[in-house]
Automatic annotation (TrEMBL), chain A:
Complexes and interactors: NDH-1 is composed of 14 different subunits. Subunits NuoA, H, J, K, L, M, N constitute the membrane sector of the complex.
Function summary: NDH-1 shuttles electrons from NADH, via FMN and iron-sulfur (Fe-S) centers, to quinones in the respiratory chain. The immediate electron acceptor for the enzyme in this species is believed to be ubiquinone. Couples the redox reaction to proton translocation (for every two electrons transferred, four hydrogen ions are translocated across the cytoplasmic membrane), and thus conserves the redox energy in a proton gradient. This subunit may bind ubiquinone.
A GO molecular-function annotation: quinone binding
Top-level taxonomy: Bacteria, Pseudomonadati, Bacteroidota, Sphingobacteriia, Sphingobacteriales
Record bears the keyword Cell membrane: yes
Cell compartments where the protein resides: Cell membrane; Membrane
UniProt-recorded name of the protein: NADH-quinone oxidoreductase subunit H
Transmembrane segments: 7-28, 44-62, 74-97, 109-130, 151-173, 179-198, 235-256, 262-283, 295-317
TrEMBL record, chain B:
Record key words, sorted: 2Fe-2S, 4Fe-4S, Iron, Iron-sulfur, Metal-binding, NAD, Oxidoreductase, Quinone, Translocase, Ubiquinone
Record domain 4Fe-4S Mo/W bis-MGD-type: where: 221-277
PANTHER family to which the protein is assigned, alphabetical: NADH-QUINONE OXIDOREDUCTASE SUBUNIT G, RESPIRATORY NITRATE REDUCTASE
SMART domains in the cross-refs: Molybdop_Fe4S4, NADH-G_4Fe-4S_3
Protein name, UniProt field: NADH-quinone oxidoreductase subunit G
From TrEMBL, chain C:
Listed PROSITE patterns: 4FE4S_FER_1 (PS00198), 4FE4S_FER_2 (PS51379)
Keyword terms, alphabetized: 4Fe-4S, Cell membrane, Iron, Iron-sulfur, Membrane, Metal-binding, NAD, Quinone, Repeat, Translocase, Ubiquinone
Domain of life per record: Bacteria
Biological processes per GO annotation: aerobic respiration
Gene name of the record: nuoI
Subcellular location: Cell inner membrane; Cell membrane
Name assigned to this protein: NADH-quinone oxidoreductase subunit I
Organism: Solitalea longa
């Protein structure tokens, strides 16, 4: 009984914390972006402008929930939910701490890859259902970007899998007791992180949105909380990629004992989240063809090479 | 065909035209000032300089004025040659040394040829530092404003006013670099075409004074192609609106009708649309209360379905409106608003056109006829633009002679006028009194209308007889002419005149000639109403008692004597008047319903030559009552029949039912493009692309902008959104093309300069040939009128300003309307023992009216002239015999309270 | 690649820079005289309205938020019968000021004109007209224009010859 309760508590707790983090990121991102741009950012509502989160959420809830008459109604409504659900499901396999993990799947990594691929449906369906040329262009870009980057996202992780010998995230974290995999798999890490940015279509890879070209792309026609879902989905995506990166390459919850494991995990994840924001503050958006070229012509060969070398070394070291 | 090399590129062009118009036809932008397509070249402004080369080896070339140089077999020119460009730029710079810094307060600004040409040549900075020349302006009357400082001495104004339109009182004074264009002293311009100065003047010396009262720039207007409603000629006009008010009329080029110009009545009569006499609210007479929509819908509809309805149509309402009324009351209950005389006259006019003995001549085609006989029509005052074309027609023969004898091209204006001097081809005028055209006539005779008709029959007989028996000068001239033309009309209310005209054309035809016939009528849709073939008012009498009478846009008191009109008005149980302006009839009606005037309505009218022309709504008035009559009547018909009201009833719906019911109107749908027409999927915008103030003009009422009105009747939008480029001619709301903001941009809309518009001149001629050839009837249908002692034949005299019902309501026109008078000759005055300006008493139908007398020396002893159409002379509706005696004290009448 | 890392690093360093933000409304900003804020209509040196109702500002306005109607007094001097700017549409681009041939319409360094009700952003002539010549003191359009509108007679303006005697043929 208590185990079930505990189980539920973990699920509800994680859900609660994640959604709050996503909301909190609204403020974090604005303040950090402002600081990197020599501004102050939102500082009026509440202490340090923290209440901007509340204001923003209220605004999103009270905005007119407009469904364009020319849109495909049902698909239009479903699309934003897809991204939030798929990202939240991915968190099921993240080991936040030795005791905090919803489910330790032995194919956790594959589950993560699968779920993140599902996220693209949100963009494609949203763009398609909007029945608007910019949205459709955004959706098409989103789809092709996802397909391209998904390929080596998966491949870049294979090095880690080879090193740990498991798809289970818990096992992978525990395999980093001695040294973090980022040391053994630097190339894998970089490629995974780049693919992760593309996966969450964050700047500089926000090609599906590209407000200067596509007037917000796939979510041009969305308003109110439907837009809010895309918004939250994006922050959840950042958090997810950061957590995964921490779990796979930076030893997850592992760290000196003066802090609890969860704190270590949170600190590392926060660092990556901030890095995401720093990227947005510093890098311009590449052209669409440049993005594709970069993916297929540079990153993919590099990943394969990385895999080959890792495999070779492992074979060499494991020689009886 | 000749080859013209422009900057070494060959073009196939017509030989003999001048280089300027050829270049403009080819689409090149070449600046000019003094040249005008209708007036030819004089080479005065030196602005259209180009380089011409001897042959392909010639690189130096020489500068020539392109307007003065004909196109040869193989001509090589350069427009872009640096010498020519520099020359043109310098000329503008010289012209601009004295041009004031006035554009902000100049009415021409934004549609100014001088601005366009200055920009075109690239002059942008005044280097000349010395003082500017100034002039004192003149008062030129209520129509035209004078600001002489702006003059660039192109001479276009006097060339138009004196040479083209035959005016006497505008001329050039002083000399050298300070010539002055104006009158000898301040005063009202006498010409009926003075308004064209505003369009002729390339800058702002002469501007539209009525526009000044409510000034807007060209780019701020909402324009629509329209048709003038002030006489039967149907000149094409552009009507402009701003802030819900009709503000300007300009001429709209139509190569078949009015060409480049319109008369002052057409240009300045528009203010009737903003007059205080407009009907704005539906009202009941007795309670004098405003009615609401429900009353109209329920009570009037109930009234119509319970009682028998009689409808009276109108010669100044559109075909669609007349037809809608006919549909509402039923075919047998629908009558024209005409008296029996008018009915017969207009039928006779239609018959002559339908018989097709003669060519039906369009207004502009008059210019091609070399011998013209005017039978009892004062064109200058009843159909002013016809007078202007007649003035051009009499130059035809001498111009041809010049071409043959000294090989002078028709566009060589100054040389031609020098060569021609006062010579002109034959023009004969038979009229009761002198007219302005007399000065260019070969022979004029003044007699009573009946004598004119008799004379007409004599001429016909003389033509019909064998050649050696022809002794009459008029007959001889008509027979010898290449193209003889007979002009007559309905203004004298004399049917035999029309019969005589028909007899003459038949006789000419018999002698193998191709005569032309041109018949003017009273109202803008007289011909359309005649074609509807409905009985006149008098036939309605039997049905009127206890009926509901619906009167459409007509004033019975103008067409019938007061007694007769009163009789009609007293018979019905209820009278409903649909009209846009107050009249005696509307004030006596039980219910009056406001309708839209031409600027607020769509419709088709048929002009005197049987040409159906469409006028388009210019703007949607704020007052929702101002709908087209046909919309009101169709609504009532739907209610009467208990059918659903069609909210989207468009003009083409009603036109298709019209054509089905009245097949003689087949073709009116083609008078303009239907509302489904789109260019690149877009409507044609009524407003220019730089239309300003859209987000502020209504924001005082509500800061949220309203949805722009939709036009279900035409392929045009009421806004600036839509197709950019040259639209089809029937839906061209205004003339503008890049770099050509002034009216001169018309060049870009024509196939060739002075030729038809790009997809043909709009309008469809409806009158079809009626193949039966009737024998000539030389029987003089004129009855000899016998007058008793102190009896005179009252003959109407028309005045361009005042004789027409609608334009007379415009303040500027009203200012120029003459005082009513009774015209008598010396003999009559002596007989009555009266001096000029004495009061005379006219006895007619047992009533007495008083008018001052005026000496008209030229008229016949039996004739008394009276100014037609003024409120003070309303008792007079057709030629009658009257008794005149000197006014004695005590006898006055309500109808003659003139002073 | 290196340049990307470098720009990330340089951006990161901005964390330690001083921020440029001015904490309006506690701190006020010092604006330049040519700042494009509130639009006003100025007056001539003779204290009459400078605007002659030429419609150029309305035509230049990219958002079409200026509407006016020109009219004339009995001396022929033009002035706007009404002059309306819909500030809820205005983008303060200053094209109207550039287009104005009489220096009548001017943008001044005042931007504090927010309203809770959009309707209050519609300014009529009474709201726009100020009792000052603005940035161009001493200028009077009618002194340099040829027109006689009661300000000066024909030939009495700047750089003008006396009116021509039209009855004379002398050079």
């Amino acid at each position: 009984m208590s185990e079930t309760l505990n189980y539920w508590l973990v699920i509800v707790g994680i859900l609660f914390v994640l959604l709050n983090i996503a909301a909190f990121l609204i403020w974090v991102e604005r303040r950090m972006l402002a600081l990197w741009q020599d501004r102050l950012g939102p500082n009026r509502a509440g202490p340090f402008g923290l209440l901007i989160i509340l204001a923003d959420t209220l605004k999103l809830f009270f905005k007119e929930d407009w469904i364009p008459p020319f849109a495909d109604r049902h698909v239009f409504v479903i699309a934003p939910a897809v991204i939030v659900i798929s990202v939240l499901l991915s968190f099921a396999i993240i080991p936040f701490a030795p005791a905090i993990q919803i489910v330790d799947l032995n194919i956790g990594l594959l589950f993560f890859l699968g779920m993140s691929s599902l996220g693209v449906y949100s963009i494609v369906l949203g763009g398609w259902a909007s029945n608007n040329k910019y949205s459709l262009l955004g959706a098409l870009r989103g789809a092709s970007q996802m397909i391209s980057y998904e390929v080596f996202m998966g491949l870049s992780l294979m090095g880690v899998v080879m090193l740990s010998g498991s798809f289970s995230l818990r096992t992978i974290v525990e395999a980093q007791k001695d040294y973090w995999f980022v040391l053994l798999q630097p190339v894998g890490f970089v490629i995974f992180f780049i693919a992760g940015i593309a996966e969450t279509h964050r700047l500089p890879f926000d090609i599906p949105e590209a407000e200067s070209e596509l007037v917000a792309g796939f979510h041009s026609e969305y308003s109110g909380m439907k837009f809010g879902m895309f918004f939250i989905g994006e922050y959840l995506g950042i958090t997810l990629i950061s957590s995964i990166t921490v779990a796979l390459f930076f030893g997850g919850w592992l760290g000196p004992a003066f802090l609890p494991p969860l704190a270590w995990f949170a600190i590392k994840t926060a660092g990556f989240i901030l890095f995401f924001i720093l990227l947005r503050a510093s890098l311009p958006r590449p052209r669409y063809d440049q993005l594709m070229e970069y993916g297929w012509k540079i990153l993919l060969p590099l990943t394969l090479l990385n895999l080959l070398v890792t495999g070779g070394i492992i074979l060499f070291l494991n020689q009886p | 065909m000749a080859t013209l090399y422009i900057d070494n590129r060959p073009y196939d062009v017509k030989e003999g035209k001048n280089l300027l118009e050829t270049c403009l036809t080819l689409g090149f932008d070449l600046p000019y000032f003094c040249w005008h397509p209708a007036m030819g070249s004089v080479g005065a402004c030196r602005q259209c300089a180009i380089k011409i080369f001897k042959d392909e080896n010639d690189t130096a070339g020489r500068l020539v004025m392109s307007c003065m140089e004909p196109v040869g077999k193989e001509t090589r020119i350069s427009l872009d040659h640096p010498d020519a460009e520099k020359f043109r730029k310098s000329v503008i710079e010289w012209l601009m040394t004295n041009h004031p810094h006035d554009c902000a307060v100049c009415d021409e600004g934004g549609s100014c040829h001088l601005q366009d040409m200055t920009v075109m040549t690239g002059h942008n900075y005044r280097r000349f530092e010395f003082p500017k020349r100034t002039y004192v302006n003149q008062y030129l009357g209520p129509l035209i404003n004078h600001e002489m400082n702006r003059c660039i001495q192109c001479y276009r104004c006097v060339r138009f006013y004196k040479d083209y339109a035959g005016g006497k009182d505008l001329d050039v004074y002083a000399a050298h670099n300070h010539v002055y264009f104006g009158r000898e002293k301040d005063g009202i311009l006498e010409s009926e075409f003075s308004g064209n100065l505003a369009e002729i003047c390339p800058t702002g010396v002469f501007t539209d004074k009525t526009l000044k009262q409510h000034y807007s720039r060209k780019w701020d207007f909402t324009f629509a192609p329209s048709v003038c409603q002030h006489c039967s000629l149907g000149c094409n006009i552009i009507a402009g609106e701003r802030y819900g008010e009709l503000r300007q009329i300009t001429s709209r080029y139509n190569g078949d009708v009015n060409g480049y110009f319109i008369c002052d009545r057409g240009r300045f009569g528009y203010e009737a649309a903003n007059s205080v006499d407009r009907i704005y609210q539906p009202a009941l007479k007795e309670e004098n209360v405003s009615l609401n929509q429900e009353y109209i819908i329920n009570d009037i509809a109930a009234l119509l379905s319970t009682s028998n309805c009689v409808g009276i149509g109108s010669p100044r309402a559109s075909l669609e409106s007349n037809f809608a009324l006919q549909q509402l009351v039923g075919n047998g209950n629908y009558y024209s608003g005409w008296s029996d005389e008018e009915h017969r006259l207009n039928k006779a006019a239609l018959n002559i056109l339908q018989n097709r003995t003669a060519e039906i001549v369009s207004l502009k085609q008059i210019e091609q006829y070399d011998s013209i006989l005017i039978l009892g029509e004062d064109l200058t005052n009843t159909a002013p633009m016809a007078a202007l074309t007649v003035r051009q027609a009499v130059r035809k023969k001498p111009v041809e002679n010049a071409q043959q004898n000294i090989n002078l091209a028709t566009w060589h204006d100054a040389a031609l006028r020098e060569y021609i001097q006062q010579r002109h081809s034959d023009l004969f005028i038979l009229h009761p009194h002198s007219t302005k055209l007399d000065e260019i006539a070969t022979q004029v005779s003044y007699s009573t209308p009946h004598e004119i008709a008799a004379k007409g029959f004599t001429i016909a007989a003389a033509i019909d007889a064998t050649a050696d028996q022809v002794i009459d000068q008029i007959a001889t001239s008509l027979l010898n002419a290449q193209k003889p033309l007979i002009i007559t009309g309905t203004s004298l209310f004399n049917e035999p005149l029309l019969a005589a005209a028909e007899a003459i054309v038949k006789a000419l035809k018999k002698r193998g000639k191709q005569p032309g016939i041109f018949i003017t009528q009273a109202d803008c849709n007289s011909m359309g109403l005649a074609m509807m073939n409905v009985p006149p008012l008098s036939s309605a009498f039997s049905k009127l008692s206890d009926s509901t009478l619906i009167i459409l846009e007509t004033d019975l008191y103008r067409n019938l004597s007061t007694e007769k009109a009163d009789e009609i008005m007293n018979l019905p149980k209820r009278i409903i008047v649909f009209d846009h302006i107050k009249s005696t009839t509307s004030e006596k009606a039980d219910i009056k319903v406001p309708v839209g005037m031409f600027s607020e309505a769509d419709g088709t009218i048929v002009n005197n030559e049987g040409r159906a022309q469409r006028f388009f709504q210019v703007f949607v008035p704020k007052n929702e009552w101002l709908k087209e009559s046909w919309r009101w009547l169709s609504l009532l018909k739907a209610l009467k029949d208990g059918k659903a009201i069609d909210e989207n009833l468009s003009i083409s719906n009603i036109q298709s039912t019209l054509v089905e019911a009245l097949p003689q109107f087949r073709g009116i749908e083609d008078a303009a493009l239907s509302e489904d027409f789109r260019l690149n999927g877009q409507k044609v915008p009524r407003a220019p692309h730089r239309y300003s103030g859209r987000t502020a003009m209504l924001s005082n009422e509500n800061v949220s902008e309203p949805k722009p009105p939709q036009d279900i009747d035409s392929p045009m939008s009421f806004t600036m959104e839509g197709y950019r480029g040259i639209p089809p001619s029937s839906v061209t709301p205004f003339f503008w093309s890049p770099g050509w903001n002034s009216v001169q941009s018309i060049n870009k809309f024509q196939i060739e300069i002075g030729g038809p518009l790009h997809d043909g001149n709009p309008g469809v001629r409806l009158v079809n040939s009626n193949s039966s050839i009737t024998p000539i009837d030389f029987e003089q249908k004129t009855e000899k009128i016998s007058l008793k002692e102190f009896e005179w034949q009252l003959v109407p005299v028309y005045h361009i300003f005042g004789s027409e019902e609608l334009s007379a309501k415009a303040p500027a026109i009203a200012e120029l309307t003459p005082k009513p008078y009774l015209g008598l000759n010396q003999y009559s005055l002596a007989k009555l023992n009266l001096q000029e300006n004495d009061m005379a008493t006219i006895e007619h139908h047992g009533r007495a009216y008083q008018l001052p007398v005026r000496l008209r020396a030229e008229i016949n002893n039996e004739v008394a002239l009276i100014l037609f159409g003024l409120p003070q002379t309303a008792f007079f509706v057709k030629p009658v015999i009257i008794k005149i005696r000197p006014a004695s004290n005590g006898i006055t009448n309500n109808n003659s309270k003139h002073e | 690649m290196l340049s990307i890392i470098r720009s990330i690093w340089l951006t990161f360093l901005h964390l330690f820079h001083k921020t440029e933000t001015i904490q309006y409304p506690e701190e006020k900003v010092q604006l330049r005289p040519r700042y494009r804020g509130r639009i006003v209509l100025t007056r001539d040196p003779d204290n009459q309205e400078r605007c002659v109702g030429c419609y150029l500002c309305a035509a230049a306005c990219p958002v079409d938020c200026i509407a006016l109607q020109a009219t004339e007094n009995e001396e022929g001097r033009r002035y706007p019968e009404f002059f309306r700017i819909n500030f809820s549409r205005c983008i303060f681009c200053g094209f109207c000021e550039e287009a104005c041939p009489t220096y009548a319409i001017q943008l001044i360094p005042d931007f504090e004109m927010a309203e809770y009700d959009r309707q209050n952003l519609v300014y009529e002539k009474e709201d726009l007209l100020i009792n000052s010549q603005g940035k161009y003191p001493g200028y009077n359009y009618y002194k340099v224009a040829g027109l006689d509108a009661g300000v000066k007679g024909k030939g009495e303006g700047t750089n003008e010859e006396p009116p021509v005697d039209r009855h004379s043929l002398l050079p």
